[in-house]
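Entry 12.
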Amino acid sequence: MVHFDAPDPDYPLPPINEIPDEDADKPKEAYKLTSTTLNGFPAIIFGAATFSRIYNETDHISGVTPLRAARLALRYGINVFDTSPFYGDSEIILGNALRALGHEFPRHSYTLVRVLMHKVGRYPTEFDYTPEAIESSIARSLRRLHTDYLDVVYLHDVEFVADEKLPRRGGNHVPALGEEREQYGLNENQEGETYTDKDHKILSAVKKLFELRDDRGVIKRVGISGFPLPTLLRLAILIQKRLGKPLDLVMSYCHLTLQNSTLEQFKSEFGPRAGVKQVVTASPIAMSLLRPSPLQAHPAPLEIRMAAMRAVQLSEEWDASGTGLPDLALQYTFARAREIGVPVAVGLSTLEEVHASVKAWHKVDVEGLATKEEWSARVKSVQDLFRDVQMLDYSWATP
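Predicted 3D structure (tokens):
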């Protein structure tokens, strides 16, 4: 059981004038973000799950590095932060950082363009989508983040609570848009159909979020997030049909990567069929799959993990430092996201990672990296490794 009134851990910060503000804390003017998507989002969203022990050591998250990374991001124009109660103490650390930066980036100055994103419903030990838990969770998040409203709230990882309605949990799900539409519950005559009480839990939770948005103003936009694209599309349609209102946003992760880019096929369905205003993608490195040292407990099948290891070895031919594959992966996601008009949530921990992300975006957006023959050849060579084992565009089963 989640105790929303339990005392929070303390992460004190020194006075702002005692926190280093050196050359590394300053943005490179040429790399500042200028373009946004249709709904005012910057190209890059700051994924703040990194402000937790899930991804970093206690010394890191309890020091001033998170504040310095957030400040540099804001100076670059990365003015969207994604956090969740599921991400350990991320909300507390991010909230403290933003409060300390209030003199340079006051809350009232970013109402329209800087969006504080939040996920609700999933907690470190359980899911709780009841309206009472959602309201208590949001009240706690407002306190932790030192604000009186949240610009975006997602219902987090909906596939764990809803009926997934998948004929197979792992595989390429693009046929859900065509010949297998009925098996996925995506036929036009199936729109608005619930399959189990699980779907009603989703509807009840989203109804509560709509109430907090429309009647009380503590939320500005409502969305859902999760992994399987057919499930997200089905639920988005269900919500519009049953509640009479569309979602503002939908977020999926690991579906616009070198290994799996099926979001490109699904993205165009969310607006016309469900009224969704903005689709967001996350995890361009595929939950660290496309790094030299991936997560040991990664949910991808062995064939995908082995192909990723071969891709790391291949990338050493053009970059012996070990950053060749993750750099290419980030550039690829930015290039495809730019093409289809979706912002990308990237986990950022350090000043170096913030600088590297905006540099990658600049290469894609300004320098036209995706048009260069050598870059395209590298992309193809990596994707061929997944294609050779029939795992290109394969979505693994949600663990």
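Annotation: Residues 109-118 have pLDDT under 50 and may be disordered. The radius of gyration is 20 Å.
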